[in-house]
Amino acid sequence: xxxxxxxxxxxxxxxxxxxxxxxxxxxxxxxxxxxxxxxxxxxxxxxxxxxxxxxxxxxxxxxxxxxxxxxxxxxxxxxxxxxxxxxxxxxxxxxxxxxxxxxxxxxxxxxxxxxxxxxxxxxxxxxxxxxxxxxxxxxxxxxxxxxxxxxxxxxxxxxxxxxxxxxxxxxxxxxxxxxxxxxxxxxxxxxxxxxxxxxxxxxxxxxxxxxxxxxxxxxxxxxxxxxxxxxxxxxxxxxxxxxxxxxxxxxxxxxxxxxxxxxxxxxxxxxxxxxxxxxxxxxxxxxxxxx
Length: 291
Ligand code: FE2
Hints:
By secondary structure, the protein is of the alpha+beta class. 22% of the residues lie in helices and 25% in strands. The strands form 5 sheets. Strands 1-14-9-16-6-5-2 form a 7-stranded antiparallel beta sheet. Strands 7-15-10-13 form a 4-stranded antiparallel beta sheet, with no helix packed on it. The longest helix is centred in the first third of the chain and has 16 residues. Bound molecules: fe (ii) ion. The site of fe (ii) ion (FE2) has 4 residues, from loops. Fe (ii) ion (FE2) binds next to loops.
């Protein structure tokens, strides 16, 4: 039987998803697959020398913010790495590459065979269908390190702000590759907060020329109710699904343990992905589903 035809969520889980805007699924990924993905990422990093490939200069000075912007805005259809604040000092890494990188993104799921296999597991296709995606498309992938001591806070936001479709369709799938705890900066979310109208939209100023940079449109200047955030501690192998309008946040990692996570964002192919979203890919590199 094809797993895509199976329902993976029970009625109680579907009710929780509708009510809360998120769903925590412990043990979704076997620990050996988490370990294998982490080992693969380490091998990727071992092949990167930011001192010689030029990428380090992108992050070295504030004068090069344009280069930094281009490194980011051009990453939608390739695989690039980004450093933690504090990891680049005077144009040099202040620590070894594996402890300096903030994240890798944003198209590993299409370009890297190991990420492709991880991202297109049949049970994920079944989950996407259960969560309401009629024509799921894998838009973006990120491997997030949340480094010990310097892993930064991610401010309270919703993903629709950054990956806008009409109608709203984005769903985040967040995999704990290592244990995520209060100490090392686990995810927090506002239960039911997906009902709050989206407050901001981050987009290109001019979709025909990304050199003109980005802008954030403020649709509602009232803050999210951050007092309502609840922690979603997650053992390695846990999958957390996040509705695209759900406010979520994570603290800085002040502990001595990293908090690796892998996250994918799915959209519905039946929705309109706007041309002025920051993340774009060429016409010769169309979004794919789970096949
Ligand atoms: Fe997010």
